[in-house]
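Summary of Year 1 activities. Much of the first year was spent building the evaluation harness for sequence design. The harness presents a backbone, in tokenized form, and records the residue chosen at every position. We chose the following record to illustrate the format because it has been used consistently in internal testing since the harness was completed.
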């Protein structure tokens, strides 16, 4: 009887509305960071048997993991931002070997399937800075700041 109650309690905790928000769970964040760090180390050491991939210097900025931890999406960018398409193609071509190398280094029970996307964060930051530095935007910001002092 007591064992059944414990299972019911765990089920209730999983269904708790407080934790069913839109953001990633702590577990997803931890596994994503573990994959990001390990993938970065594997790429930095050049453990993959692909000379094209080993020639590239690739930054892994973030890894997002699905709630069931079956798929990991790595956001990557080659150093200097040149050869983006070639980097994604090389990573996709070697994703089986990368997954095998990750599974050897990580302590998780299962290694998720890997997907690779370009990290466009830096491009968006540059565009935002460009927009904020326009004369019309500066005038509006300065006018708003002047109104707040009065």
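For this record, the design step produced the sequence shown next.
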């Amino acid at each position: 009887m007591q064992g059944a109650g414990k299972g019911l309690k765990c089920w209730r905790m999983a269904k708790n509305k407080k934790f069913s928000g839109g953001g990633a769970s702590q577990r997803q964040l931890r596994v994503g960071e573990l994959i990001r760090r390990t993938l970065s180390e594997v790429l930095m050491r050049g453990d993959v048997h692909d000379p094209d991939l080993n020639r590239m210097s690739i930054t892994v900025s973030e890894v997002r993991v699905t709630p069931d931890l079956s798929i990991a999406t790595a956001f990557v960018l080659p150093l200097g931002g040149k050869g983006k398409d070639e980097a994604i193609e090389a990573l996709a071509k070697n994703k089986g070997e990368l997954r095998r190398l990750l599974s050897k280094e990580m302590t998780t029970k299962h290694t998720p399937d890997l997907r690779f996307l370009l990290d466009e964060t830096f491009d968006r930051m540059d565009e935002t800075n460009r927009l904020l530095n326009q004369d019309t935007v500066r005038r509006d910001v300065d006018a708003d700041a002047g109104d707040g002092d009065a």
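The radius of gyration is 22 Å. Quantitative recovery figures across the full test set are reported in Table 2.
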